[in-house]
Recover the amino acids of this structure.
């Protein structure tokens, strides 16, 4: 590291002679940092190129090139016959207050997230390694906004086999997680003239926000143990409905067979559109899972799925299956949003699917998830005996409704004091609701953590 000082005026510039970074760029970086931090304030004169070159033991041409670049970027001002000075346009950013560290809880019943410790890292690494070892440079350019054909083909095979989806590779658009898939569905509906859309009540709040951002008016329709009350759709005069028929979030009900038929009849008679959010249907513990609604009416259903619940949310890989009436709008929407999802991630998931790793992971995780659900049921029965558990034996969460005498907000606060984080049903409702309770996610916790967490909840409830 060479360290020299210039004269008339003085300026400390550090150069690393052995660095791979060119000396000119080191000079530019030193000036930028000094000006941004206001060690060199606006209007301050800097050494001439001849002086600085002499002090640093460099050719003058290197310093001239650095000054020319800094002048072009607006850091320095050069006036004929006058010293080069620091521009007055550069201002140091205002200091931001430090972000408060989120208080973590020892036991967090957060719903909607799988066990990230169980992510099949070695299998994913094998797929990624195989992709990178045989990567065709063509995949690194701008590809089909629908996604790479290899992944769409692998997904079509998987969805048809595991979820009963009527699909071909041509009808799949790869997206960045379920959130983008729902957003794309909302924009497709808007482009086709839909203005009002029914949503489940209670339902996940993000869905309401996503559809509102797409320009749609959301109309809540009640949900019970048999899923959406389809008979309430007609009076609302909506042209579309968004629901999770295989496992409603948060109530956990499965859309009953007679309501499935009723919903399909509504779509046929009113030219309505169904957006199916199939977010965690692979996990059913008491029987074979119910097939996707899309398989019964592929021309009337926009089907959305992702890897967020079955693998990990951070992968940001999802899919929208669109029938012929919606496909062109879906592709155009994806192209305008981001022109396509990351290619290497797509290729990795395609290899992972073709190798049977997703099926293997889902089969392996059903056992611990069912055990954790059973442990939670037993703990609720022991510590909250008057509470009612709702929903099918499926997914990664369950709803426990509380007696009317329980102050849920106070319970959440007291549990937090015991380092247990709870999630009230009120987060999923719009306006006042006669229901009160807690939505428990159990996939991320061990059976011991579930038992201890519920023991603390019971103690907070009694207090």
């Amino acid at each position: 590291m060479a360290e020299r000082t210039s004269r008339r005026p003085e300026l400390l510039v550090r150069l690393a002679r052995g660095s791979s970074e060119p000396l000119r760029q080191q000079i530019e970086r030193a000036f930028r940092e000094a000006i941004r931090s206001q060690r060199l304030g606006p209007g301050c004169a800097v050494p001439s190129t001849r002086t600085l070159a002499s002090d640093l033991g460099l050719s003058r041409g290197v310093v001239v090139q650095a000054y020319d670049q800094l002048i072009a970027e607006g850091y320095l001002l050069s006036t004929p016959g006058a010293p080069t000075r620091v521009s007055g346009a550069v201002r140091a950013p205002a200091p931001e207050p430090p972000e408060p560290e989120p208080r973590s809880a020892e036991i967090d019943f957060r719903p909607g997230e799988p066990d990230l410790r169980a992510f099949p890292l070695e299998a994913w690494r094998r797929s990624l390694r195989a992709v990178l070892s045989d990567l065709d440079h063509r995949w690194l350019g701008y590809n089909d906004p629908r996604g790479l054909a290899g992944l769409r083909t692998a997904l079509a095979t998987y969805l048809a086999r595991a979820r009963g989806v009527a699909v071909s590779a041509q009808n799949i658009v790869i997206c960045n997680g379920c959130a983008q898939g729902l957003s794309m569905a909302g924009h497709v509906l808007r482009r086709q003239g839909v203005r009002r859309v029914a949503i489940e009540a209670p339902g996940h709040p993000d869905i309401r926000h996503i559809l509102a951002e797409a320009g749609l008016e959301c109309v809540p329709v009640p949900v019970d143990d048999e899923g959406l009350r389809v008979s309430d759709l007609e009076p609302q005069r909506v042209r579309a409905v968004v629901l999770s028929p295989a496992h409603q979030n948060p109530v956990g009900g499965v859309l009953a067979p007679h309501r499935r038929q009723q919903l399909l009849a509504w779509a046929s008679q009113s030219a309505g559109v169904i957006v199916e959010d199939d977010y965690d249907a692979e996990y059913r513990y008491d029987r074979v899972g119910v097939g996707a609604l899309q398989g019964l009416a592929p021309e009337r259903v926009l089907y959305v799925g992702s890897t967020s619940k079955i693998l990990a949310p951070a992968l940001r890989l999802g899919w929208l299956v669109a029938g012929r009436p919606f496909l062109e709008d879906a592709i155009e929407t994806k192209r305008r949003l981001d022109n396509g999802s990351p290619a290497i991630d797509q290729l990795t998931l395609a290899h992972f699917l073709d190798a049977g790793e997703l099926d293997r992971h889902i089969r392996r995780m059903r056992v611990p998830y069912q055990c954790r659900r059973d442990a939670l049921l037993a703990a609720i029965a022991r510590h909250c005996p008057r509470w009612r558990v709702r929903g099918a034996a499926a997914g990664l969460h369950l709803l426990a409704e509380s007696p009317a005498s329980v102050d849920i907000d106070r319970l959440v606060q007291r549990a937090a004091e015991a380092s247990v984080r709870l999630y009230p049903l009120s987060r999923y409702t719009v306006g006042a609701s006669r229901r009160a309770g807690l939505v428990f996610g159990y996939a991320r916790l061990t059976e011991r953590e579930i038992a201890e967490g519920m023991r603390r909840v019971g103690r907070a409830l009694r207090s």
The radius of gyration is 29 Å. The chain has 14 helices and 17 strands.
